[in-house]
Amino acid sequence: MINHFNIAANMLGLSGSVLATAMFLWAIIQQYFPHNFINKRSKRFLTLFYPYIQITFNELTSERFRRSEAYSDIETYLRKTTSTQAKRLKAEVIKNNTQSLALSMDDHEEVSDEFNGVKVYWASRKTVHDTQSQSYEKRYYKLTFHNRYRQLVLTDYLKHVLKQGKEIKLKNRLRKLYTNNGGQWTHVVFEHPASFQTLAMDPVKKQEIMDDLTTFSNGEEFYKRIGRAWKRGYLLYGPPGTGKSTMIAAMANFLGYDIYDLELTAVRDNTELKRLLIETSSKSIITIEDIDCSTDLTSQRKESKVLEEKESGSTKKQNKENESKTSKVTLSGLLNSVDGIWSACGGDRLIVFTTNHVEKLDPALIRRGRMDKHVELPYCGFEAFRVLARNYLYLETHELFERVRGLLEETKMTPADVAENLMPKTSPPDQEECLMSLIGALEKVKEDATRNKAVENKVKNGPLNGSI
Ligand SMILES: Nc1ncnc2c1ncn2[C@@H]1O[C@H](COP(=O)(O)OP(=O)(O)OP(=O)(O)O)[C@@H](O)[C@H]1O
Ligand SMILES: [Mg+2]
């Protein structure tokens, strides 16, 4: 419990009893001297004997029904201190992605905090108010600090508390995955387990992306200073099954952002697109997947369609292209809308496009400034394989690794296929069996590729040979 009387006595270098005597004398002076004389000096006297300032933060706003945001920011900020200092705590389960327990100060508890070497005190208080019709409780936090630090506390410290509280709340909140449906956003809870740690790709490239994301998310001041909107565009490209969608989920988990998965084929026209984008909230990733088949955005659209049929036979992507015929979104509409969120919305937003055919996208769509960072997700290389081996088989190294390395260099297999072949069939995993299964699959891919090449050459040379 903070004893202000003792604090004041200590500050003045007096014992409690000396201070008590002084206060008694002051009470006598108050009795016998004229009122205005006392008023003038009482302030000085009080500051001398009790040099503390107090600020109250009520739980409810003046409308009495709404919870004050500052109160809840302070509550969140104080959780860490509370859990180590307070003797009586209140616990509640917060439904965030980890379902953790949130601890806060119980009524009439007190804790201290330190900022730039200055000590301040926080107390949680409750009063009960009775009116004719009802009785209600009023809760508030009381901040106490020395008058000497008034400037520091009122500006820097309080700013720090509210900012930190907000940031912690954002990190812990239940995150959402939004999809557009009939011109509206609908959401479900976003619970994808992907992380950068489990993402199979070259570690140097991975670290570079993580650093870029961290710089971006901490860059509010920087973006303000250089006069740019706090936004960043990512283009992820590579063959199907190389981890583009997985990387978006990992980015959202890494930054603690929501995801807006924008299905362009379900957007009626450019106006609807613009509205949907403007409705997105800050701290979010807006994704447009398979941008090359989403809508009529490429001049070589027809060629792309034929190629798609030939290469992957992916019916999902085919359907997407067919559906896009009903959408009237145009390339210029998309460019305008992307530029619109760049300028019309405050707060940080990432926009991520994914494609299997980067060469077919209009350069205007992916130019730097719209898509600032282009990331290629290639077929599985040895470093990506090592991440998968670690995740799936708890293996750092193995004598079969060299064989795998050689085969990966000669073949094209996606991380999705490598992962599938490494999937343990027993528990605990038989590491050698899994590696042999992968080697078998890689050898088969290599054989198929050689055979296909031979057939291709035959077809290419066939008519010529025949004519000779
Ligand atoms: N780089 C990777 N690291 C870890 N897992 C991966 C990786 N790439 C693919 N996978 C696994 O393969 C599955 C498919 O990956 P994902 O959906 O991310 O591919 P994609 O590149 O988005 O494919 P598409 O172009 O068809 O959309 C995922 O469930 C994931 O588990
Ligand atoms: Mg994908």
What does this protein structure show overall?
The protein is an alpha/beta fold and about 475 residues long. It has four domains: about 50 residues, no CATH class; about 120 residues, no CATH class; about 180 residues, P-loop containing nucleotide triphosphate hydrolases (Rossmann fold, 3-Layer(aba) Sandwich), CATH 3.40.50.300; about 80 residues, no CATH class. Helices cover about 50% and strands about 20% of the residues. Strands 8-7-10-11-12-9-13 form a seven-stranded mixed beta sheet. A hairpin with a 2-residue loop joins strand 7 and strand 8. It starts with a helix and ends with a helix. About 5% of the residues have low confidence. It binds adenosine-5'-triphosphate and magnesium ion. Adenosine-5'-triphosphate binds next to helix 8 and helix 17. Pfam families: AAA, AAA_assoc, AAA_lid_At3g28540. This is AAA+ ATPase domain-containing protein. One of its GO terms (biological process) is response to stress. GO terms for molecular function: ATP binding; ATP hydrolysis activity. It catalyses: ATP + H2O = ADP + phosphate + H(+).
